[in-house]
């Protein structure tokens, strides 16, 4: 069994300058992207969100419910795939879709 001391790893002076100091700006513009720091929605290191795993499960469950319980339709609208300029990769015009509950889910959804 391999035991890893995460506390010691996060304070490794070979990895971080002044490892015991709180410096969140060190993650803003890292000159070399570290593996695992590409998406820091829940933070990282010892100040990472303790509910990150639960948050990912809740988002996955919500998406699954939307897919399973509703029929989705764009009603003949063409999807505009033009991208917005900026830092993030977002669509210039948001997707418009309409949902209707599936017939076998109406009773289930009416109890919510």
TrEMBL record:
GO MF term list = heme binding; iron ion binding; monooxygenase activity; oxidoreductase activity, acting on paired donors, with incorporation or reduction of molecular oxygen
Q: Which cofactor does it need?
A: heme
Quote the SUPFAM superfamilies the UniProt record gives.
Answer: Cytochrome P450
Task: Decide whether keyword Iron is in the record.
Answer: yes
Which residues are involved in binding heme? 49
Please tell me whether the keyword Disulfide bond is annotated for this protein.
no
Gene3D superfamilies assigned: Cytochrome P450
Keyword entries, A-Z: Heme, Iron, Metal-binding, Monooxygenase, Oxidoreductase
Could you tell me the superkingdom of the organism this chain comes from? Eukaryota
Q: Which family does it belong to?
A: Belongs to the cytochrome P450 family.
Name used for this protein in its record: Cytochrome P450
